[in-house]
Amino acid sequence: MTDVLYTGPIPAERGGELAMGGGRSETSALSGTGGERDMTTAQNSQRPNACCFCWCCCCSCSCLTIRNEEERCRRQKRKGLSQGTKMETIPNCEPCTKPSVEEIRLWSQSFDKLMRNPAGRNVFREFLRTEYSEENMLFWLACEDLKQEMNKSAVEEKARSIYEDYISILSPKEVSLDARVREVINRKMQDPTPHTFEDAQLQIYTLMHRDSYPRFLSSNSYKSLIHGGSRTSSES
Question: Which residues, other chains included, contact 157 with Cβ-Cβ below 8 Å and sequence gap of 6+?
């Protein structure tokens, strides 16, 4: 059978499709191909760089940057300390007598000897203030005061005050504690005792010993105290 070629008029709808460029299916296919290319380009432009593929790597990089910046700030602060620091210029945060040169020298033998001496704590606290970490000493002193308290209502009041001042994440004087110690504190705060912050106090004491104490011994403030005391002794 011979195929008959239709030569009659083209329907209006079909004519419109042909005039538009070959029908809806072809147009859709082209649009889809272009859309895929656009989506691929957009995804590539939004894709993070190679460093961001590894979250741990990026975190390490950021931490190193922060630590370097902190160390730079600390060096600037240490350089800014007065070269002529004298015992008379240290605020007496705790009542104490003026230490002798021998006592000042003993502070360099161990952190315990420094912390057992009221004048030593005053000097060290002033140094911590220059490093913006005075809250560590304030927290330690508050814990020492709490341990001397025997009245239950006073213990509860002081414990709540210590928590709000140094443990709460909302406090500007919050000290740095790990999650385990914070969990212990939260549990003990249900029934506070004079030893509620014992673990936290030890952790902050260790932090000051390992982090701040070595810098204190190398600081101009401590060296000037020794030299100033030595000159006073020789003159007398």
Answer: none
> How many of the other CB atoms lie within 10 Å of CB of 59?
10
Distance CA 139, CA 87 (A): 24
CA distances from 140 to 74, 135, 213 (A): 22, 8, 15
CA dist 197 and 142 (Å) reads 10
Q: Is 124:136 a contact under the CB 8 Å cutoff?
A: no
Is residue 146 within 8 A of residue 159, CB to CB? The reply is yes
Distance CA 177, CA 207 (A): 10
- C-alpha 141/C-alpha 122 separation (Å) is 11
Tokens of 217: 């011994």
Q: Provide the residue count of the chain.
A: 236
Residues of the chain with pLDDT under 70: 1-92, 229-236
